[in-house]
Model the fold of this input.
Amino acid sequence: MGNLCLVFFFFIISIVVPVLGQGGLQIGFYSSSCPNAESIVRSTVQAEFNKDPTIAAGLLRLHFHDCFVQGCDGSVLISGNSSERNAVTNTGLRGFEVIDDAKAQIEASCPGVVSCADILALAARDAVDLSGGPNWGVPTGRRDGRNSSSSEAMNLPSPFDTIEVQRNKFAAKGLDDHDLVTLVGAHTIGQTDCRFDYTISQEQEMQIQA
Done:
């Protein structure tokens, strides 16, 4: 899982830095203006993770769904009947309360300094780390998006898309087939089993194992 999550991280950096004029991201952006920001996010995610470890997958998916639409601008966090948050493609998103909690604590310490977009990016990193994945320095300094449209979120990759549709969606982000295969599996955490409802021959079994 570690390598997949690292690829996810570099995907986020590659498609986000150029968008919305947010090219000035840097690690430690809040070191002077809000030095406790990252530790507040970490402790908030840690507290929720201790109660419900599955929140890690929720936060990572939330970040992915935010970034794929307009870049990592936090627009998925905006409420409203026609916002990204209420798009059919975002059904089942969770972790909003974790971001809200961290934001409230940070506002009490450093009002008007840290963006929700950065809090979400930091929370996703911490979720991966707490799940046994890699840790990394998150470049911060994002500005929160003000526009959030459910129609734009309809371009998110869907499990019901054909391969060709998926390829076109990723190509529009400058990503190739290798990125597609990796990221479709890496934007969440967990495992599953394959079950066959029919009998296969020994020769077929050997082909599958190969």
